[in-house]
Amino acid sequence: MGSKHPVQVIAVTGGKGGIGKTNVSVNLGLALADLGRRVVLLDADLGLANVDVLLGLKAKATLADVLEGTCELRDVLLNGPGGIRIVPAASGAASMVNLNPQQHAGLIQAFSEIGDNIDVLIVDTAAGIGDSVVSFVRASQEVLVVVCDEPTSITDAYALIKLLNRDHGMTRFRVLANMVHTPQEGRLVFSKLTKVTDRFLDVALQYVGAVPYDENVRKAVQKQRAVYDAFPRSKASLAIRGIAQKVNAWPLPANPRGHLEFFVERLVQQTGTGL
């Protein structure tokens, strides 16, 4: 594989807040680490960071410091549970919410320096469909849209997919149903979403699976631990494990797509100079 192996970059997004996106990101990261992958989790909710809080970690430096040039990206990595590493964002920093395109590009390119020590980068995006969400999602090669069975979650997921499709030409999305009460509910949520996307957009949605509603998730949050770590035999943890096995089999990126991407220079080197 050489030192320039491709890195799988997965954006976990969803449009709406409160759908358990960060929980999905953290626990998926732990489950992938269990499968032997070297995982880094980027808290890309730049103004309202919460991954470190969710896991009871204290960040000494954050992405705000990387942007200011006072430290390198590798200096802000936190060691999380299960061997995953976390890139914390700043909490309550208004300056981080309205980054300009150059600053976004700078952050995305800063990841290149850790490329040799990572197999999977999970990008936990902010809620909404702002510029920051769009630029992180476009820079990732897989988009995992988290939805739950409530009308606002489905309309917000649709709005995000529509924006990424119509304005940025993205056509492939993976969908995960979260907090479902039955396996059928997950499929139903997916079909509600595809009903509108099939009608109005030219996109391919793939159903990845569902994570059941599980009281253990809330208990784990209160303990400031990931449910996968605190309650490994819980329904939610077992579902995440199954989803991680699917994610683990997704193809690795083979060639750059002609716009700003995480680790794009690795792909350029792999494909030679045939750009």
UniProtKB/TrEMBL annotation:
Alphabetic keyword roster: ATP-binding, Nucleotide-binding
Coiled-coil blocks: none
Keyword Nucleotide-binding on entry: yes
InterPro entries with a match to the protein in the record: FlhG (IPR033875), MinD_FleN (IPR025501), P-loop_NTPase (IPR027417), ParA/MinD_ATPase (IPR050625), YlxH/NBP35 (IPR033756)
Source superkingdom: Bacteria
A Pfam family annotated for this UniProt entry: ParA
Stated name of the protein: Site-determining protein
Gene: fleN
